[in-house]
Amino acid sequence: MIRKITAIIIVSALLIVAGCKQDKDNTKLSPYLYDYIPTDIGHSVTYDVDSISYSYDASAPGSQQVYDTVYYQLKEVLLDTLTPCQSGVTCYHMAEYKRYDTTQPFNTFAYQAWYFYVKASVYVADQNDLPFEKFTFPPIQGSTWLGNSLLPANDTIMDTYQTYAQPYPWTYTFTSVNVPNAINGHFFDSTSVVTDINSQNAINSTVAIETYARHVGLISRQWEVINKQDVTSNWTTPNQANGFRILMSYHSYTP
Fold first, then answer.
1. S-S: 45 plus which of 171, 206, 225, 253, CB 3.0-4.6 Å?
2. pTM for the full predicted model
3. pLDDT of residue 106
4. Alpha helix (H) residue ranges in the chain
């Protein structure tokens, strides 16, 4: 009887130790939640994109506000790795494919390439030769960083990326971390939102907000730079306005 009780105690103790060890190991598995940025070759995400441009010529008599909306699908695919790479880390080669007719396949022979890398505490995406610190690890509600700090201080490229250039630092902020979210009719149980910038007044709007889901990556993005002369109009339908608004929403993905 004593031997049986002793055996039970020993087995129970071993189970407790094993359980504690398992909990400890699970804590160490991904405390930094790197799975917000998947690095599996072949991983892809397809987005529904609404691209809206606003144009208004105040100098033209009787000028009308022009809205030009284009819908297309964008597919981002992790093709392979690039080595050696910046900072001695592995870089991942990405391809972006577009299609304006969703009944047709993506043209895999025409794409825009970019790359990214993941270091211990940051995810850097280099798009159009401009690097952005998009995401930091671990994601913590309210934590901030200068996501555009890697851009050249004297950047004079005259395109939409000019807005990113120094000396206009943006304070990226985790405005939501590890919460359920629904995007474009799809439910995700763990998402984090990075607000790159959200600056609006009566005449200017600069907004860049991205949402990431664990195991999927980026699932939505709002990116706009608009200025308007009609201060009574709202930002949903700005009047006497020039600029653009791009809305990307998750459509599907392949692990």
1. 253
2. 0.84
3. 96
4. 2-29
